[in-house]
């Protein structure tokens, strides 16, 4: 059991949680994730470790409510417990001083981007960050990201905040202005697909952090598999970061929908039952 | 071996055994038919996860036990990897001393209720029974009897708690809670060590929990064993991946003096054929984990599972059989085994194959999938199957399947389960660069001691053998405990 010690809503659907997990706080590095399970009957699902405090023995998770499990997690209060939490999982980001980094986060992808931006900055890179969302209220972690970025470009689809346009337009703007040595993209699969196409045009080496469906997170089931450069890879152990220009995003988009109908139904059932309970 | 032989002889010479032998002549014994295991009706059982074999009644067990002629040279024992004193426990059953029979089992096996259910008896003890070897008759039902005695003990509530030596305060760690780890933990606890078992998943039991379905091995049986270990003082830490959650170095600093890696062969293999990543194609690990570990078939759990109407399972081992029978239970109209060799070569337990047939599973042998097709949503809808024939024997001694030129078939599917084998779990070796591994990725150990290239690290079960069996994993756990004890005492 893992105790929640702090909680803050960034928006109606995005919440930050600090959780007591001293071993993970000590062992984790930027890019790692955990698998969480809530309650006896809960499912196992992955979340990036957005930050950690070794002294306090806590880790931070930033969760966007999209379905049953993320809603259950977001509904937990300070003092309550997460039933199961395991990690740190995956390969840590390979951080070194590469020069200028273009870091791009879409939607809740900004959460996992934060520790990476921080690590790049601390390694001496110049960091230009583009964060994007559909509208103003979906922009998260702006201040925290800004703290570790030499420059921050905010984009919204509807122009309600920052500049109007897609993440790729913000990227083009930065690329036109200066030489980028490496790009890092995290966000919804569609966003990553187009962001990868953008950097490919300019031959900028690019990493994407993939958010496939997972079960165990330790290489045991193959639910997370995708094709990279024509070869099957397991995102949980080989990734989650891969050369974005080699990833078959179209396949990944299809695979993400593998359980969509079942999940949608479970979600509407859950919402109905929690309304009945008055939560 | 000398010792063992004289022990067996002196046991056999005991008065009660002599008396029992004389109570019936051998002719009478051997003329009896082998007992039939009572089973749940195939049509009913595929609608639930009820255990297929219901177990022998006391009367049936005693009658079957009377078939055993208590051989002077009990060849059956040579077939058992942990050398259970088979005639002794069987004769205890014949006598009606069921709790005594269970004690005999526990002399060498820590999970008899499990082994009685899942051992490939027809290749081990029963293959070496006098009946099979000399009389060319059906062997004594050693597995059924083993299960009977173990179940009797559990259900009687009179489980004998093993004697525990005085606590010595030495901390040892066990990595993984499958049969290898559980056995190791039990043996070390008996020797007085302070044992902690670290398990990566949220449940204890390894393949016994996440792999083998409840209709073959109810979880409750494994849980009783785990409770027993807890009573003996064994500590369990779930959600703890040794090498990730904490490196071995940290555990050493925390006082652990030696380690046993029983981390299993949990990584699925795929065939790397076109279309294999389409939706609806899963590894047997994913399929069985969703059902057995996450209980996805229960509507009240959050984990979803696909339940197709036309299910193809690729492979011929126990894992394939468990998957295909699970598919039937999830409501498949057609559940088909696609296996590249013939029925004879199929590695699954014979009983499972028989049960699968009773449940309406179809078998396409000498067949191998070579390509998958999907609809516009990426959902698999067809598989192309290559017909095979058997050629020359390969390195394993089995005849190699070779494609029959031009003989292909396309069948409709909506779910495909790939059960073509597993690879060793790389997490422990990856976290210890100085640990020697084979080219297969299994941990290298000394054969007699199971000590690895790191002196304080022992290993056994599937992480050393590749995919093997429950009983071999248990045998390793036991052996490693014995040699680790010697190592720690001489240190
Ligand atoms: C390595 C990794 C790191 C992740 N880190 C974070 C994180 O830090 N914060 C966070 O909020 N989420 C993160 N995710 C995504 C998170 O795991 C999913 O949002 C979560 O599993 C959804 O579960 P659910 O039951 O709430 O929704 P479900 O009922 O499973 O899904 C509801 C809907 O959400 C969408 N969805 C489902 N899974 C994903 C996914 N993986 N990515 C995008 N959309 C999805 C689908 O369209 C689906 O229909 C990460 C995923 C991976 C693989
Ligand atoms: C579906 C299926 C059916 C089978 N049927 C039979 C049968 O009928 N009869 C038979 O004899 N055999 C059968 N087998 C094979 C048998 O189950 C295995 O040989 C046996 O379980 C191996 O035991 P083990 O203890 O070595 O490993 P496992 O049972 O695999 O247990 C290993 C455990 O270690 C954990 N682990 C791994 N790495 C770490 C780490 N770094 N830190 C912490 N924990 C870790 C894993 O999560 C797992 O729980 C079957 C296997 C499967 C998959
Ligand atoms: S443990 Fe297995 S091989 Fe040994 S006697 Fe029992 S069933 Fe036979
Ligand atoms: S070989 Fe068969 S008949 Fe002989 S002791 Fe063993 S089980 Fe009994
Ligand atoms: S999540 Fe199971 S193998 Fe990656």
UniProtKB/TrEMBL annotation, chain A:
Keywords: 2Fe-2S, FAD, Flavoprotein, Iron, Iron-sulfur, Metal-binding
Transmembrane segments: none
The keyword Lipid metabolism is assigned to this record: no
Species in which this protein is naturally found: Plebeiibacterium marinum
Cofactor note: Binds 1 [2Fe-2S] cluster per subunit.
Record: residues binding FAD: 62-64
Pfam families found in the cross-reference section: DHODB_Fe-S_bind, FAD_binding_6, NAD_binding_1
Annotated FAD-binding FR-type domain residues: 1-95
GO BP term, pick one: pyrimidine nucleotide biosynthetic process
Cofactor requirement: [2Fe-2S] cluster; FAD
Protein's name in the database: Sulfide/dihydroorotate dehydrogenase-like FAD/NAD-binding protein
GO molecular function, one term: metal ion binding
InterPro entries recorded: Cbr1-like_FAD-bd_dom (IPR008333), Cyt_c3_hydrogenase_gsu (IPR012165), Dihydroorotate_DH_Fe-S-bd (IPR019480), FAD-bd_FR_type (IPR017927), FNR_nucleotide-bd (IPR039261), OxRdtase_FAD/NAD-bd (IPR001433), PyrK_electron_transfer (IPR050353), Riboflavin_synthase-like_b-brl (IPR017938)
UniProt superkingdom: Bacteria
Keyword Flavoprotein: yes
Amino acids binding [2Fe-2S] cluster: 221, 224, 236
TrEMBL record, chain B:
Alphabetized InterPro entries for the sequence: DPD_II, FAD/NAD-bd_sf, FAD/NAD-binding_dom, Helical_ferredxn, SudA-like
Leader sequence segment: none
Residues of the Dihydroprymidine dehydrogenase domain: 46-157
Region described as Disordered: 1-31
Enzyme Commission code: 1.4.1.13
Record-given protein name: NADPH-dependent glutamate synthase
Alphabetical UniProt keywords: Oxidoreductase
Gene giving rise to this polypeptide: gltA
Compositional bias (Basic and acidic residues): 1-18
Transmembrane segments: none
UniProt domain FAD/NAD(P)-binding: residue ranges: 171-477
Natural source organism: Plebeiibacterium marinum
Alphabetized GO MF terms: glutamate synthase (NADPH) activity; iron-sulfur cluster binding
